[in-house]
TrEMBL record:
Residues 1-24 form the signal peptide. Keywords: Signal. The keyword Signal applies. The lineage of its organism: Eukaryota, Fungi, Dikarya, Ascomycota, Pezizomycotina. This is Coenzyme Q-binding protein COQ10 START domain-containing protein.
Amino acid sequence: MRLPSPRLCFFNLIFSLLILLSSSQTTNLPDVPPGVFTVGTRLEIRTNVSTIWDVLTDFPAYASWNPFVRSAIVTTPFGVPTREQYPIENHKLILRNQIPPLPFPVDSSTPDNPLNTQFAFENITHIQPDKGRLAWEYIFEAVLQAERWQAISDLGNGKVLYESREVFHGLAAETLKVWMGEGLQKGFEAQAEGLRRVLEG
């Protein structure tokens, strides 16, 4: 039996170390309890933290670039739309989503696919510009709970890491996973890609 050369062993060792390092990536997302299922994505984008934060929190402009969230309307806790349509903690958020997402390219005149239109009524829980994080949650008693976090991290050299994750709990979570889990995952990936396209031109 012929033994592998020392050079090949060295390259195999380096390759294994790179895989190990990539699997232990740092994250700006907070630790949360595991749920029935999770969807999420992460993507490096050539931009800066303040610019990507401005795009993420400019809800009226979502339709111009986002194939997943086509509309995001902030309201008071009593359901009255706010004058400034930017996220505010302890306010409500009405989302009109496409699950699965629309194909690229999209802009504000791109029509929804009525068969894939879903509405979600969320509570805005965290707006943390100093940490580069924002979050909202959906709660329907014991039936379904979900919390979505988005986070950005400065990687240096003109790059920012965008991360997004939603964890689902409750009696209906398994059914939701079967029914639209794949579409939700595609939606998260499409939003990240939409961000990259609008920010990188």
